[in-house]
Amino acid sequence: MASPRSNPHGCCGVEVSCCSGAAVNETLTATITNLANCPCADGAEIELKIEPIVPTWSGRGPFGSCGREIGLTLICDGNECEHFKLDYEFSDACIGAGQIPAPESCSCDPLNLEFRLGPTGGCCNHPTPDDQFAITITE
User: Whole-model pTM?
Assistant: First the structure.
């Protein structure tokens, strides 16, 4: 589990067990990249802000020009970078809310996590069911 030790002045990030020895910023950016048949979401950015009691980082924003919003919550649940998880949900429930249990790639200094999702079955407004996109979280 994450055990935050936040700087009292908010200047230097938060230490979490998933990134031992590296402080993670209190505000992160999630960038969506089209991998297959999801051009309407390509380039969308969502700001994730820390909820320090847990700690998690959460945010909601437009899923590009796809006509819906996506909510994201980054969770640390272990002692290594691979133990970050990403919860997601779409405003119109184009697919049910879910969790990506581990990043495809990760590093902590600086933070860079890549999660992949797909197929979504319609969230990308594409007629084929094989859409896929990446969500990259950075400081």
Answer: 0.90
On the question of a cis peptide bond just before residue 4, with omega within 30 degrees of 0, the verdict is no
Measure CA 92 to chain center: 19
Query: How far is it, in rounded angstroms, from Cα 106 to Cα 126?
Result: 29
Question: CA-to-CA distance for 130 and 139, rounded, in angstroms?
Answer: 30
Q: For residue range 84-95, list pLDDT tens digits in order.
A: 999 999 999 998
Q: Residue 128 is which amino acid?
A: T
Q: What is the pLDDT of residues 64-109, one digit of tens each?
A: 999 999 999 999 998 999 999 999 999 999 989 999 999 999 999 8
User: Could you tell me how many residues make up the chain?
Assistant: 139
